[in-house]
Amino acid sequence: MPLVFIGPPGSGKGTQAVRIAERYAIRHISTGDMLRAAVKAGTPLGQQVAATIASGELVGDALITEVVRARLAQPDVARGFLLDGFPRTETQADALDGIVGALPLIVALIDVPDEAIVTRLSSRRVCESCAITQSVSDAGDVAAPDSCSYCGGRLIRRPDDDPAVVRHRLETYAGFAGPLIARYRSRPSFAAIDGRQPPDVVTAALSAHIDRQLAQRQEEPS
Ligand code: AMP
Fold first, then answer.
1. 9 close to ligand 1 (CB < 6 Angstrom)
2. pTM for this one?
């Protein structure tokens, strides 16, 4: 079961991806998480992409495609996978179609307007210890020493959640997402979900879309 989630930064895509991957017992593959982990570990890949990630620019197509290709060759994705953050360009989408071959992608767009995103991301923090993403108080005192509600670790703002960088990331997203959405929208396995709804409602809508696709596939003669 190959799944792809598309959505602007801060659309709740990552949170939904974790839930959906758990529900269907498939691997959640976030290219952003993989690259951040590589930066943190100081691997050659991490050193190569650190400045690009911090600036909100996209990493080169060839590099990220190789990262994804290698990841999808691992045995733990045999049951299925959910790609979060890939593809981001038409070149990457072409490469993905080649990687999955005849397996039809199930694609979901989690749609949220820009103004709602900037508000959301200004309060988003990630735990240094357990890496769970969470929101600080709506008052959003960025100087407050918040601690993780799951493990008590220190909450930090991702450098690319800085408002100026967020605006740049939204521009970058707008640039690549249009053609990508146009490409997938014509496929019957595509659905657009309103990401402003409460998280549980979004999860239910995504699950309904996936269940419909899986049911159709079982009905199709093989
Ligand atoms: P994300 O957490 O998905 O917002 O990704 C964080 C950063 O990682 C992005 O701003 C890019 O610099 C880089 N990145 C992640 N996925 C991709 C991709 N598919 N293509 C290019 N760059 C990527």
1. yes
2. 0.83
